Structures are given as structure tokens and as C-alpha cells.
Amino acid sequence: MTGKSKFGFEPLAPDSVKPRKREVGPMGAAVREAAGSLAESTESLVEQRRQNATDAKTFRTAQGEGRVLEVLRVDEIRTDDLPRDRIDLAATAGSDEMEELKSSIRARGQKEPIEVFRTETGFQLKKGWRRLTALKQLWQETGDPRFGTVTARVSLGPADRIDLYIDMVEENVIREDLSFAEMAQVAITAAGDGSLDGQGADALVGRIFASLHKMKRSYIRSFVFLLQELGDVLPYPKAISRNLGVEVARRIQASPETSQSLRQALVSVSSIEEQTDVLSRNSLASASRDTTGRGASPKKAVKYEFHVGKAKITARKGECRILSDTDFSAVDRKRLQSAIEAFHRALEEE
Fold first, then answer.
1. What are the C-alpha distances in Å from 250 to residues 169, 245, 315?
2. Cβ–Cβ contacts within 10 Å for residue 350, how many?
3. Per-residue b/e over 70-80, b at no fewer than 16 CB within 10 Å?
4. How far apart are CA 49 and CA 59, in angstroms?
5. Is 8 left (phi over 0), alpha (psi -120 to 50) or beta?
6. Cβ contacts of 124 within 8 Å, gap of 6 or more
7. 125 bridge partner residues
8. Residue with more model confidence, 26 or 283
9. What end-to-end distance do the CA atoms of the chain give, in Å?
10. Burial (Cβ within 10 Å: 0-12, 13-18, ≥19) of residue 244
11. What is the CA radius of gyration of the chain?
12. For the chain, which terminus, N or C, has the lower number of CB atoms within 10 Å?
């Protein structure tokens, strides 16, 4: 058998066969390139969509948690949903501190965002009443467009309304910028909020000011009682010191009949000093009526404080201390002695 085929060809030797080189033609190259680009584009598009979905979820989470800053018009923000944590807002709006804040914003712009929450009717203020008020005043005074907007941290309204009260006071409490009377007023106002299921002011002190020490919450409750008893005849509640307020509340609780006479005396006061004097005299008069019966424990020493101008006066048995910016060592000795003698004569006349 010769190995030839029926056509008369012999098999080719493997080493004599040269492989055929097939090059992709122009059309094939174009098709391959288009297919590769399509695959790469589809993968990139899928990745982009996945990233967009992740970003959208992150944004919604941040928005719900109040971590998103927006620029809003100052007239878009309402302040009537929550009572502010300052008793005399008109006085605060016209105070020297407000003018200082306006000067800072005028020179350097708004540095700290306010906090608002969304409602069905728009935006309501949560924190930053002073900053918002300063911007509104500057806008009205100057007409400058840069004061017509405010940078705000925007969140959805919380599920529990009590959280709004907590958030509102938290910043000022941490900065120790609220008096005991103002903190007490927040609890009293919250107690009248129909959304809080009729909880009393005492109970709400524990919830709104839960982060404070229990002793401080006790002081706030004393001021709650004081404002509920005398709030409508106290012209300067913010000026009442902690010790004096707690002492007066304790005296009224021990002798409720003193409340009426104290109310009558407070009606005619026209200054912080007069208010302090009336409250202090009531506290001392109540203390002088306390007697120790057989087997009773001795009376506690009475102490009270008040201010005259920028001077702080602390009075207790055997001591009257004056703290002020005055350098008493620079005052002529004879003049100081004369002033002290006049002080003693005035006490003796009283």
C-alpha cells in the first residue's frame, strides 16, 4: 500500500506544513472592539448605578439624622412650634450680647449652623434662635442678601416630641447659658403641650434634663414650684439666684400662707434689686419664725445672694461678702472706712 489517496496525493509531512496565519479583518476588528467597549461600558454603568444607590441611601440616612446642611431663606423658618428656652425673648433680642453676635456675623459671617426640622407646613427651628434672630435683624437693617439666608442642619421631626425639647435646651445647658428659672419654664411649658400626654412639670424635668446631675434637677424642680406659685408677679425671674430661689420655694412649701403676702409685696417691685430684697426679706422673716421645740434639731444657717450693679453680695450669719471688679485695695482707706460706717448706720436704722 503506497499511502497515496485515491486522488493520487501522498500525505504531507508535518514539518513541511506551514500554519496558516489568519488576521482579523477590518470588520471583525470593529466588531470585537465594539463588543469589548460594550462589555466595559455595561460593567462601568452597573458599578455607577450601584454607587449611586449607596450614595442615595447614605444621604437619606444623614438627612434623617440631621447631618445634612442646607442654605435656607431666613423667612422660611418658623419658630412657633416650640417655646424658646429663654423667658424674656424681647430683652434677649435687644441685648448687648445680641449686638455682639451681629457684629461677629457682619464681620465673619455665620460660623455655626442652626438646626431645623421639617414639618408639613415647612421648616421649624430646633436650635439656634439667637443666630437666626441676629441674621433676621441684620437683613432688615441692611438689606444685604448674604444675611437673608442661613446655613441650617435639616432633619425630619423626631418620632417622640419630648426629643425636641431635649434637643432645644441641650446646647444652652451644656454651655451653662440658661438660668434655673428658664430651665424651669421649659418644663412648665412642656407640661402644657398636648402631645406629651399630660405629664406634669416635675416629671418632665427628669426627662428633659436627664443628663444633668440629680441635685441640679432638684434645683430646677424648686424653681418650677416657685414659678407656678409666683411666676405672674415675678418681673425678673432670671435674676433669682439658685440659693435664693430654692430657699424661697422651700419656705413657701413649709408655710403656704406666706405665698399671698409675698405676691402682694412683689407686685410693686420695679428693679432686680427690689425683687431680690423682697424675696430675701421673706426668706429671713420665715427663718426668724422657725423655732426649735423640745428634741427638735437646730435651725439651719440662712444664706442668700443678690446683685447690686456688677457686684455680687453674699449674706450669712456674721458675714457680708462683696465680690466685684473694684480693686478695694486701691480705694483710700478713710473713704472705704467711711463707706463701711455708713453701711452699718443704715443697718442700725433699719
1. 26, 9, 18
2. 5
3. eebebeebebe
4. 15
5. left
6. 77, 78, 79, 80, 81, 82, 116, 117, 118, 157
7. 116
8. 26
9. 152
10. buried
11. 38
12. N
| Domains of the chain, CATH where assigned | 62-157 (3.90.1530.10), 162-287+303-326 (no CATH)
Residue with cell 446683685: 307
Roughly what angle, to the nearest 10 degrees, separates helices 129-142 and 96-108?
70
Judged by phi (left if over 0) then psi (alpha if -120 to 50, else beta), residue 12 lies in beta
Q: Which three cell numbers stand for residue 53?
A: 444607590
CA 147 to chain centre: 22
Cα 195 from Cα 345, distance rounded (Å) = 58
Residue 143 corresponds to which cell in the numbers above?
Answer: 438689606
What residues form DSSP beta bridges with 281? Answer: none
Written as nine digits, the cell of 348 is 442700725
- Is 0.85 surpassed by the pTM of this model? no
Distance (Å, whole) CA 30 – CA 46:
24
- What's the CA gap between 350 and 340, in Å, rounded? 16
Grid cell 405676691 — which residue?
263
The DSSP call for residue 278 is: H
The residue type at 59: F
Cα(215)–Cα(246) distance, rounded to whole angstroms?
12
Provide φ and ψ at 316, rounded to 5°.
-150, 175
3-state SS, 131-145, equals: HHHHHHHHHHHHCCH
Q: Which three cell numbers stand for residue 12?
A: 504531507
Euclidean distance between CA atoms 206 and 165, whole angstroms: 12
C-alpha cell at 101: 453676635
- 3-class DSSP state of 312: strand
Give the phi and the psi of residue 341 in degrees, each rounded to 5.
-65, -40
Cα–Cα distance, 252 to 340 (Å, whole number): 34
How many percent of the chain have pLDDT more than 90? Answer: 19
Is residue 316 within 8 A of residue 301, CB to CB? The reply is yes
CA distance 84 to 252: 28
At 226-272, the pLDDT tens digits run 999 998 899 999 889 999 999 999 989 888 888 888 988 898 888 88
Other CB atoms within a 10 A radius of the CB of residue 286 amount to: 19
